[in-house]
Amino acid sequence: MKSSIRSIVDINMIANKFTSSIVLIVGPDHYIDAKSILGLSMTLYRDRAYHLQIHGPDQAEAKAAMLDVFAKHNLKVEFHGE
After folding, report:
1. Full-prediction pTM beyond 0.85?
2. What is the pLDDT of residues 40-73, one digit of tens each?
3. How are beta strands 21-26 and 49-55 bridged, if at all?
4. Which end of the chain is more exposed for a tag (fewer CB within 10 A), N or C?
């Protein structure tokens, strides 16, 4: 089932608050820039699990905010990184 427009917009807005690179990984070779609303709208589904990678100066804050927004919309995500 496709995710709601609200969840796509919320994830995108939160991601764009940070300078860190925020990438969702779907499958072995599909990467989505969380700051790209087009990328999110084409690939964000509720029944899929995502892997989140964040790199940059505000990584800790971005990680907490991204995990919160995914939980708010009942989307499955795991953080991979430091």
Report:
1. yes
2. 888 777 677 889 999 999 999 999 999 999 999 9
3. antiparallel
4. N
Task: Tally the domains of the chain.
Answer: 1
CB atoms within 10 A of CB 60: 11
Domain of residue 32, residue span: 5-79
Q: Using CA atoms, how far apart are residues 57 and 73, in angstroms rounded to an integer?
A: 26
3-class secondary structure per residue, the chain:
CECCHHHHHHHHHHHCCCCCEEEEEECCCEEEECCCHHHHHHHCECCCEEEEEEECCCHHHHHHHHHHHHHHCCCEEEECCC
Burial group, residue 79, by CB count within 10 angstroms (0-12, 13-18, 19+): middle
| CATH number for position 14 | 3.30.1340.10
